[in-house]
Write a structure and sequence with these properties.
alpha+beta, ten-stranded antiparallel β-sheet, 10 strands, about 20% helix, about 35% strand
Length: about 190
C-alpha cells in the first residue's frame, strides 16, 4: 500500500482583506468548505457521473449531513469520501477527505486528510459557481495564497476484511468448541 499526497490550502486571504494560516493541526477540524447554491440532485448526479457511489453503511454521519456520503476509489488502496451538508437559504456545503479504502481493516485507524482542489476542479468542470467558506473564522475566502503538501502513509500490509473475518471466525468457533470439549485439543492423539 503506497503513500498518498494531498495538496490543501495553507494560507488564505479573506474577503475583508485579512489573511489566515491554516495550521497542520487544524486540518482535522475541516476548516474549509465549498459552498454552492443549487439543488442537491444536481450535485449528486455530477458525483455519480464522475464515478462516485453512495455509501450504504460504514459511515459516521455528521450533523446536517444530507443522506449518505459518496466514495470513489483513487488507487487500489485509497478512496475519496465526499459529504454534502444542508445550510440556510438553499446553500449546500461540500466536504471531502482521502482515506484508506473501506475494504481494509486499517480504514478504522488510518490517517485522513481533507481535500479541496479535487472538489473545486470537479465543480469547475461542470461550470458550477462556488465559494469557499472558512468555518473556523466564519468568513468567505477570496484567494488561496499557499498550500500544504500532506503525505498520508500507507500500511505495509493491507488487511482485507473478508479473509480476516473468515479466519477469525474459524478460530473463534474452534476455540468455543474446544472450551465446550466437543473437539480434542489436537486431533492426532
Amino acid at each position: 500500500m503506497g503513500d498518498y499526497i494531498v495538496t490543501y490550502p495553507k494560507e488564505v486571504s479573506l474577503l475583508k482583506g485579512m489573511a489566515d494560516i491554516i495550521k497542520h493541526d487544524d486540518l482535522e477540524q475541516d476548516p474549509l468548505y465549498i459552498i454552492v447554491k443549487g439543488r442537491v440532485d444536481d450535485i449528486v448526479n455530477i458525483l455519480k457521473k464522475e464515478g462516485f457511489h453512495r455509501l450504504k453503511f460504514c459511515e459516521k454521519k455528521k450533523p446536517s449531513q444530507i443522506g449518505n456520503g459518496f466514495t470513489k476509489m483513487l488507487t487500489r488502496s485509497w478512496e475519496m469520501h465526499v459529504r454534502l451538508f444542508e445550510l440556510k437559504n438553499g446553500l449546500i456545503a461540500i466536504h471531502g477527505e482521502v482515506e484508506i479504502s473501506r475494504r481494509y481493516v486499517q480504514h478504522l485507524i488510518s490517517a485522513r486528510a481533507p481535500i479541496f482542489y479535487e472538489l473545486a476542479n470537479l465543480l469547475k468542470k461542470y461550470e458550477i459557481d462556488y465559494k469557499v467558506w472558512h468555518a473556523k473564522l466564519g468568513e468567505y475566502v477570496s484567494h488561496i495564497l499557499d498550500d500544504h503538501r500532506i503525505r498520508l502513509k500507507g500500511h505495509i500490509l493491507p488487511l482485507p476484511w473478508i479473509p480476516i473475518t473468515v479466519i477469525g471466525s474459524f478460530f473463534g468457533i474452534w476455540g468455543l468448541l474446544r472450551i465446550l470439549a466437543l473437539i480434542p485439543l489436537w486431533p492426532f492423539y
